[in-house]
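[Discussion] Sanity-checking designs against the backbone

I'm trying to build intuition for which residues belong where. Below is a structure token string of 355 positions. I'd appreciate it if someone posts a full sequence so I can compare it with mine line by line.
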């Protein structure tokens, strides 16, 4: 039986059981003298042992080739998690796409993308650009979250929300998030919260706090992506759809899912952000996947993020939610909640001399 996780999934050898047990024979002839026939016996190799040896060699070769392919297709450029930006002048209405907006005068359906909570469709616009259209509860929240995260210097997938869109073969859709798939950006795979080049840095700690800030409880590896462009490997967040709701009601495995929500402005406004500060560390009111990674956040880590978030103006925050086509009432609720969380983080991390 093979091991699917190994370079040789077809090969598994157990030496506890001989797959070709010897056949017992009754021999009534006298045994040969000592030494007689030894050369013949030394030359003989049971067929199953020859097969095992051959497969072992093949496995070593396959493993070497797999490593070579990993180096060829995996990240090889400069790893980047965060870049300094002019936060106060960042255009949260346009987001990381900037002036590159979809030309929807003609839309071509390519295929439905499988996996995840929301329905997704790959399309081409009239300019030949490729986009992934997401519909459902996560479209608005992800559009707004991307603008806040990218405004302070972290890399995300780039998107725009279209209030109405007709996709041939699919139908008329509302509040459609279009995520760009530019030809000059290569997607290299996912990255892990537990093992990456940035562990222990203030930037990585700040990104973790930002996930709690947004109530992005779906912190799984599949929602992270490495984007390669111009010799740089950007460690980005590729899915922020569950933001701006409520996290799980408890920290128990599996049961943390109870009570969670996504894209729920009122519940986001009612949810607590910071639970307590003790021994120089911040505990957040956050239950979700990989929430244990937030257990080592210090006051200094929180201060680093607070200094960035404090640079956002009220208009920038409101524009991020308007870009996601929220109602005026929801824009007000969410913007006020974001500002309150910024104040809370600023307060608990403020140096004593600044109080």
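Best answer:
Here's mine. Compare freely.
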């Amino acid at each position: 039986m093979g091991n699917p996780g190994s370079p040789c999934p077809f090969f598994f050898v157990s030496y506890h059981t001989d797959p070709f047990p010897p056949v017992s024979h009754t021999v009534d002839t006298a045994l040969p003298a000592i030494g007689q026939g030894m050369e013949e016996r030394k030359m003989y190799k049971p067929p199953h042992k020859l097969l095992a040896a051959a497969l072992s060699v093949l496995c070593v070769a396959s493993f070497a080739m797999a490593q070579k392919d990993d180096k060829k297709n995996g990240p090889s450029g400069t790893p980047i998690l965060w870049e300094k930006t002019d936060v106060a002048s960042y255009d949260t209405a346009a987001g990381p796409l900037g002036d590159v907006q979809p030309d929807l005068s003609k839309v071509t359906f390519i295929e439905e993308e499988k996996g995840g909570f929301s329905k997704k469709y790959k399309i081409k616009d009239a300019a030949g650009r490729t986009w992934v259209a997401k519909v459902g509860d996560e479209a608005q929240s992800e559009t707004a979250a991307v603008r806040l995260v990218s405004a302070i210097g972290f890399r995300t997938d780039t998107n725009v929300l279209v209030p109405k869109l007709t996709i041939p073969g699919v139908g008329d859709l509302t509040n459609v998030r279009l995520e760009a798939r530019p030809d000059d950006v290569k997607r290299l795979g996912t990255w892990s919260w537990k093992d990456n080049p940035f562990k222990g840095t203030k930037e990585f700690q700040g990104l973790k706090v930002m996930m709690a800030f947004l109530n992005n409880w779906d912190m799984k590896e599949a929602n992270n992506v490495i984007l390669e462009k111009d010799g740089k490997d950007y460690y980005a967040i590729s899915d922020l759809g569950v933001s701006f709701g409520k996290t799980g009601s408890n920290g128990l495995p599996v049961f943390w899912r109870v009570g969670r929500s996504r894209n729920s402005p009122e519940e986001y406004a009612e949810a607590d952000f910071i639970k307590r500060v003790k021994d120089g560390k911040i505990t957040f009111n956050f239950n979700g996947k990989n929430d244990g990674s937030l257990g080592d956040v210090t006051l200094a880590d929180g201060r680093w993020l607070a200094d960035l978030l404090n640079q956002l103006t009220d208009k920038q925050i409101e524009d991020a939610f308007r870009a996601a086509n929220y109602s005026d009432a929801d824009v007000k609720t969410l913007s006020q909640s974001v500002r309150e969380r910024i104040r809370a983080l600023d307060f608990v991390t403020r140096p004593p001399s600044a109080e």
